[in-house]
Task: structure prediction
Amino acid sequence: MTAAAEATTAPRPSDAQPAWLPVRGRLVLASGFMLFLELALIRWTGSNIVHLSYFTNFVLLGSFLGIGLGFLRVGRTKRQPYYSPITLAALVLIILMFPVTVDRDTEGVLYWTSLSTTGPPAWLILPVIFCAAAVVLMGPAELVGRCFPELPRLEAYRYDLIGSLSGIALFTLLSFLSAPPVLWGTVAAVAYIVLLWPRRPLGQVLVILPATVVVAALSVETLTAGALWSPYYKVTSDRFQYDGVPVMDIQVNGIPHQQAIPAERRLEWERQYALPYERAAAASGRLDDVLIVGAGSGTDVAIALSKGAKRVDAVEIDPQLLRLGREFHPDKPYDDPRVTTHVTDGRAFLERTSRKYDLILFALPDSLTLVSGASSLRLESYLFTQEAMRAAREHLKPGGAFSMYNYYRERWLVDRLASTMQAAFGHKPCVDVVTEAGQQAVITAGVTTADQRCGAEWPGAAAGTPPPAGDDRPFLYIKDRAIPQIYIVTLLLILIVSLLAVRVVAGPYGRMRPYGDLFLLGVGFLLLETKSVTGFALLFGTTWVVNAIVFAGVLVAVLAAVEVTRRFRTPPLPVMYAVLAAGLVLAWLVPNSWLLSLPVPVRAVAAVVIAFLPIFAANVVFAKRFSDSSDSTLAFGANLLGAMVGGCLEYLALLVGYRGLLVVAAVLYLGAFLLLPRRGRAAVASG
Result:
């Protein structure tokens, strides 16, 4: 069926939709609101429920489930989805009343610092958030789904994508402005009122009351928390005097993160801060250029200046942490003309700069959060790979040294990092375990052994120490090549709940049987998106700007595929599947190391072609198949549920690496081709 033929058979608007809002505007608004709400939920819940700082795709999976259920619910009821704002209001109140900090003292997960737990236990609060996220997102998705039958298939999909891009743009703008959640809540309240406003007074109360609760509750949080909202964290701080010394404690997402203390007192209280300068031979003679990654609020920079550094490049990914240091650090290190600040990812800075240094220091660069949309990638994951340490070595002057320090909790983490440094530098580093409790350690390597002065020789990695992490599997805190049991159990429970929810909301599973190929297309697409996000994070940095650009770029590629399919005669599906396969092979064959060797402009062009060719081809396949579907909402719902399963399969990267996800995606796309109905294959093959 062509788009022109569809236009003559499109049904009349549903009575449940407000007639005063045209269908195209309603679709753009609803889809933009849907994506904005998803991003806001991920961001806000993670700032108050610390578990979610490390399981960001937990809310993402709930969102995908809700969006899929919303589409499947279309046609089964004409009632407005008042349940969505009511559930959102309840979720906001529950989280604000019962915030959670987490005991992260569990081997095998993606974090390692130990803190006490307050608030509801994980087994209680996480299912509540997952289910609430699904119900909240189901409402906007139902509104989007009701618009689909009123328009030709691909035109509806086109406006859905335009709306999604608008939602990303709005959330990105608010992130750039460091807007607090009360503004996010206000956007949600206005969208609910515009999209759900009914004629009956009772319906009006069901919209206005929960919208008001959301805005009021978030206003109270904004006014009382005294928080700065960076693109990554909710940042709070306390300033006080300790033993006559001015101290600023900084917490992110409720976790103690940094302290701004005069350099002299920090060196007096904690020996680890002096050890890099004692172990680096160059530091005793000259310290012309120093690079500090993880500069934070400035204490490490102040120490470098006190040691005689003539020039310091201070790299920090979070602009609000730099702001706090600039305004309140007692030593005022960022006001010193010898210091240049860089708000970017440390690995990206190393890959771009041409400067060389006498000392490169990774100063406690623990991000305490994950890259949104990538299940296992932390902001600093690419700093601790063997390739990153080689990049650091290449930026050292003759006689220079590289050092890192942190609290590593497990001795095998110290040995793993030391052996990674040994592989990158070609000789054993200096390893100083300052305190056995918490494994506070400093690891230092000179360009040669003559450029380091060890207190004692490191005996080497203990038996059972995992090999160095690499750019393809940058999971420093995963000891074994396995998926931790906590993830397996959680994902199985999610899939079981999802199966039950689909049966309750959508009816018999047989309704979706004709769209099994679209389901697999959704699974494969989410894996390609994950590979793109993680790949661009490596090539250009794990910053929120890169992340937003990649997500927007994926949607632009999808929109381009839809426009090409609508306007031109595209090749038959077998040919497009062959193009998709070629794109996957190309992405498999081109190594990241080659891309990183290219100048940044050329690297960007090459990365876009390699990443978006299979995404474009896959979405031409989807657009051709979707335009021929007999039930647009059911077909789209099946595809979205596939994306949710793809979110679960992201964790396979812990086993096979991010490059291996291309093989998994290839198998899924092969299955989608084999499941393509013969009638549909013949129809779309003709153009």
Notes: Confidence is low (pLDDT under 50) at residues 1-16, 102-115, 682-687. Residues 600-627 form the longest helix (28 residues).
